[in-house]
Amino acid sequence: MAAETTTQVTEEYKNLYPLHAAVIQNDATAASKAIQAVKGQKPSDVVRAGSAELMRRYNKRETQEEEDLDLFINHRDWRGNPALHLATHFRHHEMVKMLLKEGADPMMRNGGGFSAVQEAICSGDMELAELLSDAVAKSASDEYQNRMPKILEQLEKSPDFSCELKWEFKSWVPLLSRMLPNDVYRMYKCGSSFRIDATLVGYSALRCQRGNISFHLAGMDTKEPGRFTLVDHEKKIYDIVDPNEDTKPKNVKDLLDRPKIHRVQFQTNDVSFTPAKTFWGYERTERVAGFDTRVYDANHLDLMMLKRVRSKEVALPPPTLHPDYFKEAVKEGKGNGLPYSTETVKNTVKSFNGTVHMTDSFPYEIKDILPILEVIAPRAKHFARLKEFIELKLPEGQFPVRMELPVITTISAAVTFLNFQRERPNPDMFTIPSDYSSGKVHFNFDFTKKEEAEGEKAKQHE
């Protein structure tokens, strides 16, 4: 049931953000008029200013008009909130449905780093949380399917290779650091197909689970281009999966019962890379994995953990916005989300000192690695962090043979490319053996979901 709105919207806010104002007031007619009014129009400066960090889906739109409408539907107001987040905060169910139908992106986050699903969880509204969770799962799957032809095309154009990717996890928390695992992923790329082998298949309660699994992407020359498969070689089973299936929470009710939500966010705005110096002031060089490399210091490499904790002893108050929300002076497009008065909000920033070893003699380009990371990132979140890091402004014309990057606020990783071979792997490696059968393959190695809490426990027991 929609909550009753008592918030008074100022005329200035209404003029600048007509869609957001209509959503706050739960005025479906005004919201529809605001959307119709911008169709065929170029986005205003206000819309563009609120869209600087947003859009994920431009390449899925067929016309410029559709892209411009996406900007309007999804742009943030001066407190950093898209219209969908406001509709969710006020628990306006029909407005949420209308915005999703018009193209609101359920995967977008507001200036505080929170998704609409998280706002629904904080509101305690099960129906909205499930509605938005379903929308996120569908959006992620649609985006993946729409991107797949381009991914396969990029893979097909890049040279074939095989290599190893060594992950060494560590932590500044002593107790946790001793318990962290390492693994060497073996990567093979042939045409538009790729395969990644791993032995670390799970990590829970500070214990690692070993196995022998592979990630397979079927290429353009197969019967099912773009098919993503997990293969367990010990059990001789395979599992055809949607790489984005983990975007939907398994148990929404369980999330609603938890007193807090958190979001770990990579701070990228101020990241820079500068040549590392020796004691005598010369640029540092080192030989890594058979390559002569220049060493760079990664500056302002920070992770922010945004945490909202709600009191379970106090009834949730009616949704509202403080009058200061509508003051012109707060036009920074950020904020802490849309917390209720019974919630406390805490932002913790952890700074990391990392280094990157770059070489100009690596027989591959970094842009050729990105399509592989894009496919595997939704299933292996540490690969998602690697993709984020590689997409930063690394020194041009060089390849990062070794990188140190944060994974979560208590864990970092050193990632090294080893034994690179620029030759075509055996095509048989990319087919599933005939004696394997269909079954559920379990891969549950994800620091971002579980180990944040365990890291906090370890830190408390130092």
TrEMBL record:
Transport is among the record's keywords = no
- Cellular compartment(s): Endoplasmic reticulum membrane
* Pfam families named in the record: Ank, ANKRD13_C
Predominant location category: endoplasmic reticulum
Q: Which keywords fit this entry according to its UniProt record?
A: ANK repeat, Chaperone, Endoplasmic reticulum, Membrane, Repeat
What are the ranges of the ANK repeats?
A: 79-111
Annotated Ankyrin repeat domain residues:
195-312, 342-433
* Cellular component terms per the entry's GO annotation: endoplasmic reticulum membrane
Function noted in UniProt: Acts as a molecular chaperone for G protein-coupled receptors, regulating their biogenesis and exit from the ER.
Q: What is this protein's record name?
A: Ankyrin repeat domain-containing protein
Q: Which organism encodes this protein?
A: Planoprotostelium fungivorum
